[in-house]
Amino acid sequence: MSGYSYVTADGLKKLREELEQLENIERPKISRQIGEAIDKGDLSENAEYDAAKEAQGLLEAKIAQLRGVIANSRVIDETKIDTSKVQMMNKVTIKNQKNGAVMTYTLVSESEADFKKGKLSINTPIAKGLIGKKVGDVVDIQVPNGIIPFEIIEISI
Questions:
Q1: How many CB atoms lie within 10 A of CB 64?
Q2: Does residue 56 contact residue 126 with C-beta atoms inside 8 Å?
Q3: In degrees rounded to 5, what are phi and psi of residue 100?
Q4: Which residues of 115-141 are buried (b: 16+ CB within 10 A; e: fewer)?
Q5: Sheet containing 102-108: which strands, arranged edge to edge?
Q6: Residue 22, pLDDT above cutoff 90
Q7: Could you say which of 63, 88, 97, 139 would form a disulfide bridge with 149 (CB–CB 3.0 to 4.6 Å)?
Q8: At what angle do helices 9-21 and 47-71 cross, to 10 degrees?
Q9: Could you give the CA distance from residue 70 to residue 149 in angstroms, rounded to a whole number?
């Protein structure tokens, strides 16, 4: 993984909790499944063993990926976030100039993104188009169904 991922303290806590869950609960559970499958005898035709080994491989890959994300995470001090222009951790209210729809999103890291909660990944086309812009700016953003002009209505924390 290259570069840093900027997260909130709460976001980093959730990542660490997920890693702890995988290492301390899921890993031993899969080890038990492998042990039970081995106890059943011939491993060459043991579907339970094959499934458990595959699950173990996927789990270990997920653990390694999560460790990498945590190692490359940098916690953002939310008290020092500037609202004069759009940046990471800003809550941005935008207006679609084509249909008049007003939307509010908080720009967050990939690991904290949750569209249903209004948390938009900093890596999305909309977020990339908004970065560095100010209130009143109109930004043309390429989305899957064409280019949409968005006006920045408000920037807050």
A1: 10
A2: no
A3: 80, 0
A4: eeeebbbbebebbebbeebeeeeebeb
A5: 119-121, 102-108, 91-96, 146-156, 138-143
A6: yes
A7: 97
A8: 160
A9: 36
**Is the dihedral angle over the CA atoms 26, 21, 67, 8 positive or is it negative?**
positive
Q: Give 23-44 pLDDT, tens digit per residue.
A: 999 999 999 988 888 887 777 7
3-state secondary structure of 23: helix
pLDDT tens digits along 96-130: 999 999 999 999 888 888 889 999 998 899 999 99
Closest CA to 150 of 132, 138, 135: 138
Q: How far apart are CA 12 and CA 6, in angstroms?
A: 9
| CB 34, CB 49: distance < 8 Å | yes
Report how far residue 105's alpha carbon sits from residue 58's, in angstroms, rounded to the nearest whole number. 33
Tokens of 81: 């976030």
Provide the pLDDT confidence category of residue 138 given band limits of 50, 70 and 90: very high
| Helical residues (DSSP H) of 22-145, grouped into ranges | 27-39, 47-71, 125-130
Is the pLDDT score of 84 beyond 80? yes
